[in-house]
């Protein structure tokens, strides 16, 4: 079936570029990495990129050459300072589900990431990070905030959409609906199985919590805990319509997603068991 509309536009200043190169399983060179873009105050958006050197049909991939130029030539806040850092517009970007397992493979963490092939240097006067997405409504729930041992409703809502990606992959993405009128409309009109087109803002905000512990000797121990919160904030939505996904296609896509998650969980558990093997005293270096 056709991919759902999935468009991301990011404008801002290049904070940092992380890159890697190597040879893929088809013995072709590749370039990949992540560009951190400051798209507003305290809003630093990571954008993944990847390209093989050669096209499947033969001939050199122009995106590969373009990304080489980005990595080699673009100036960043981290390396060159804010005054010299380049401003860019990210083109061709899209949102994808990013799910992995932590804590011995028993805790699933579900979020999103952004991938894009094009990065264009240009003067930016209005930094922003925005999305336009079409998807089928899976569920709509009250947003719950945990404070201590309590779970407190915020008055906002979270809507999960099934967004069809490349090769009919199923992406489950969460969208935050804020404001009394918007939440009321969503609860009255957004039912599972219907399709909706939404737009809004992408936020990736890092907060730092500092704790100070008094000690018996010397200076207090000061520790920092960093927490990154990623949110897709809905700003607008069309009236819902019947879904373009057939029940058969939906069942197949979600079954494939479940199989992929099962493999990720098994891999995480194997990795955890391997890292927890006891080492003998002779294996320690002093």
Brief summary of the model shown:
It is built from four helices and twelve strands; from the N terminus they run βββααββββββαβββα. The protein is an alpha+beta fold.
Topology:
Blueprint: E1 6-23, E2 29-38, E3 44-52, H1 62-73, H2 77-80, E4 87-102, E5 107-115, E6 118-121, E7 128-147, E8 150-164, E9 170-177, H3 180-189, E10 194-213, E11 221-237, E12 241-242, H4 247-275
Parallel strand pairs: 9-11
Antiparallel strand pairs: 1-2, 1-4, 1-7, 2-3, 4-5, 4-6, 7-8, 7-10, 8-9, 10-11, 10-12
Oligomer: single chain
Helix content: 10-25%
Count up the domains: 1
**Major sheet size, sense and barrel closure:** 5 strands, mixed, barrel
Which architecture would the CATH scheme give at its second level?
Beta Barrel
Structural class category: alpha+beta
Work out the helix count.
4
Rg over C-alpha atoms, rounded to the nearest angstrom: 22 Å
| Element string (H = helix, E = strand) | EEEHHEEEEEEHEEEH
CATH superfamily: Nucleic acid-binding proteins
Beta-strand percent range: over 45%
Looking at the structure, the CATH topology is: OB fold (Dihydrolipoamide Acetyltransferase, E2P)
């Amino acid at each position: 079936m056709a991919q759902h509309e999935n468009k991301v536009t990011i404008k801002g200043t290049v904070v940092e570029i992380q890159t890697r190169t190597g040879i893929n399983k088809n013995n072709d060179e590749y370039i990949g990495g992540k560009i951190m873009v400051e798209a507003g105050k305290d809003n630093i958006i990571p954008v993944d990129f990847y390209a093989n050197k050669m096209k499947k049909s033969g001939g050199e991939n122009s995106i590969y050459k373009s990304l080489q130029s980005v990595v080699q030539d673009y100036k960043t806040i981290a390396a060159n300072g804010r005054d010299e850092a380049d401003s860019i517009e990210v083109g061709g970007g899209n949102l994808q589900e990013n799910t992995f397992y932590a804590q011995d493979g028993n805790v699933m963490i579900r979020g999103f990431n952004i991938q894009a092939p094009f990065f264009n240097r240009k003067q930016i006067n209005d930094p922003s990070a925005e999305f336009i997405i079409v998807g089928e409504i899976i569920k709509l729930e009250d947003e719950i905030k945990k404070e201590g041992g309590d779970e407190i409703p915020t008055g906002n809502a979270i809507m999960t959409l099934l967004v069809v990606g490349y090769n009919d992959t199923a992406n489950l993405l969460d969208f935050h609906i804020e404001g009394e009128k918007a939440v009321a409309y969503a609860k009255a009109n957004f039912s599972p199985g219907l399709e909706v087109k939404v737009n809004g803002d992408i936020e990736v905000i890092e907060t730092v919590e500092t704790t100070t512990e008094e000690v018996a000797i010397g200076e207090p121990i000061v520790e920092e805990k960093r927490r990154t919160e990623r949110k897709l904030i809905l700003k607008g939505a069309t009236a819902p319509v019947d879904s373009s996904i057939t029940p058969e296609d939906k069942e197949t896509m979600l079954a494939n997603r479940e199989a992929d998650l099962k493999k990720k969980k098994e891999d995480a558990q194997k990795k955890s068991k391997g890292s927890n093997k006891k080492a003998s005293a002779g294996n320690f270096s002093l």
